[in-house]
Amino acid sequence: MMFQTFDVQTDPSHAAPRIARLRQAMLQAGVDAFLVPRADEHQGEYVPARAERLKWLTGFTGSAGMALIMTDRAILFVDGRYTLQARTQCDVELFEIGDLVGNPPVKWLEAHARKGWRVGIDPWLHTIAEVRKLEKAATKQGATLVPLHENLVDRIWQDQPAAPLGRVDVHPDCLAGQSVAEKLAALAGAIETAGASHCVLTDPSSLAWAFNIRGCDVEHTPLALGFAILAVDGAHRLFLDPAKLSAESRAHLENHAKLSAPDDLAPALVELCSHAAAIGLDPALAADRLRGLIEEAGGSVVEMADPAQLPRATKNATEIEGARRAHLRDGVAVTRFLRWLDLQEPGSIDEIGAATRLEDCRRAAGEAFQEPLREIAFDTISGAGPNGAIIHYRVTTGTNRALGAGELYLVDSGGQYRDGTTDITRTVAIGKPSAEMRARYTTVLKGLIAISTLRFPEGTRGRDIDAFARRAHWQAGIDYAHGTGHGVGSFLSVHEGPQRISRMGEHKLLPGMIVSNEPGYYKEGAYGIRLENLIVVEEAREIEGGDTAMHGFETLTLAPFDRRLIDPAMLDGWERNWLDAYHARVLDVLSPHIDPDERQWLEKAAAPLAD
Fold it and tell me: 374: which residues sit within 8 A by CB, 6+ positions away?
């Protein structure tokens, strides 16, 4: 069975009657506007079907967005990755498309909210920090932010799916590299240092990391949705639906925490407040309703960062070695797929056929290495020709097109293995590429090489190095509307914070952090180009002749780039040296694991560049 389906998931025609019903619910609730974010009570990027309120209401299926529904207009805010997608999935006669980054809802309300407006929100779906900004923006215009006790979309969504009950599995210490007891002791210390007696873990990734468990409550990401209250004195509590637990996982967790149902979270917080507990919440991650529960019960909120976030992001030696193993088998799969693709006649396969073949290659490689593919990391982006210009394109039976001669094919995909999560993008020429395609591809490659070879001092943030990937783009008068890199988990979320390489990347890049390196270029209506490797931050090392130790990156991903799309004349000598060395490494590492025909193809694909 495929991990990915290609069904058409939304219909723009459904939006109008649903918006009409929502406006009726707004009238009954006494609000003039209502915000519908793509979020659940855990504030994660990946949400279960039950929480896909934005998709159900608007038709938009992207992973980031928010709708502002008013009595006389509706705005769907999306970021640059989804501008084209939103226009195709939504009724543009009904929705204005807003800029989630440049002019998000908080800025829009600050400028356009009407005096006396009551703006409704579900406080479970907005963070503490977000609600503060919304309140300030509304107050500036004489409006009021109104937390509602019932989500208005839930009120009208008659066939809303049930909450997920995915099985919880134990993630063994031999893959985690650290025991639960060790992790919880360190987290308790961090909580005490922050001046709290307890802390609520709201991020399922932190839950999975801290308790060495994995789940299957959301597509493609091994998360078990739940909460935890960690205590300095070690009296930890874990709130998971008991139906998710096997005898093994229950016994594993009962060694470390008292198990309770999710509905017990609110009473537990109230009880702690009666004993003068100081409860830590991450204002950037925790739902504002949690703050409300604590303060209404007379408790004290200590604002602190999620104590599991940073240790989860800085992989230990065991996790890094696991990532290398995962990328080895993934490299075999992707290289095998690229060879197969190269042998096909233009027009003979389509986007769905290519995505299906790639998943088959991953399954086969996992079986050969005796470490099965557990899931794909996300729906494969399989875009031919103009579809490749849609940054987060999802192929369906309604959009599927053939890989035609003279076009580019962009494939962005990843795998979930017990020892690591992978994410790789390659762009391939179908037939003979144009000179413009080769120039743009080489520009993107230069950006990838710039990050791959970078040395940087302690304290460097993602925002400090993002421009290195864009230098060649800017010199050519082009750019791309997404970040250069996101954090990646260890058999967890393919998008993991706090690290990222982007203009908004405020966190320091620390040894052990895995990030993607993925510059791109997109020509609307024609083609898209993106190249992506995963890289891990290395410990700082002295440079001969220098006086400051510098960090660098180790490249984890192993698969060739399409040499037909590279213009050697555009590369400097050091760039060519890096590319030739990378390809030589790909050939050396993968050759023992592929058959003679595949090796013969790879020898040509990974050959040094000719002038």
Answer: 222, 416, 417, 418, 491
